[in-house]
Structure formats: structure tokens, C-alpha cells
Amino acid sequence: MQGSLGEDRLPLRPHKRRSRLAPECDKLRRIGERHAQPLHDPRAPTEHREMSGLTKRSVVLAGHATSVALEPEFWAVLDRIAAARSFSKAQLLADIDANRGRRPLASACRLLALSWVAEHGPAA
């Protein structure tokens, strides 16, 4: 019975068409993999370190693991604040978290650091 569903059709197989640009894309990907350097690599070009300029620290707040990414200058001020208050870094971040309201944690950390420097000076 010709014309009934499936009897006169060839079996389907996956289509393997490659675009005209595929060889060039493969070549560029291989070049990129060979020359790529992680952003945290101290041997990486200066532009990459400056662009990525954030340092990430992990902490458990209210029973949830989270991380905060800030510029090293802000971490230095927060470390001084923690030392002045006799807090660990984790205790300071928990205190900031408890008092930040709806503000993002990184923003609350930066604002605390800025107010601390305004009140105590940059070398305090």
C-alpha cells in the first residue's frame, strides 16, 4: 500500500551540515585556548587584572553559603573595621548582613567602608 504513513520513506538520520565559517571558528577557538590565561594569574596582562579587580570571599550568613566580591581596597578597610571591633571577618560580614535591609551585601560593605574612612581617615 503505497502512500501510507512510513512505508515509502527512508529512515531519518541526523543532519550534519556545517556552516562555511566552521573551519575558521574552530581555528579561532584553538588559538584562543592556546593563548588564554586565567584572570587571577599574576602573569596575566595588567589589563586583565585591572578589569577583573574584584576579590571574592566566601562566608556563611544565616545558614546560607554566599560570597562577596569587592575591590581589594574595600577589603582592606573592612579588615581594619573588623580588627577595631574585635570581630572576625565572618562576624563583621554577618553584622553587615543583619543591618543592611534590602540593600545588596556588596553595596552595604562598600558603604560601611566609605563611612569608616570618612570618620576615621584612610590610615585608621
UniProtKB/TrEMBL annotation:
It holds the Pfam family RHH_4. Residues 55-116 form the Ribbon-helix-helix domain. Gene3D superfamilies: protein bp1543. InterPro entries: RHH_dom, RHH_sf. This is Ribbon-helix-helix domain-containing protein. Residues 1-53 are annotated as: Disordered. It comes from Brevundimonas intermedia. Residues 1-11, 21-51 have a biased composition (Basic and acidic residues). It comes from the Bacteria. Signal peptide: none annotated.
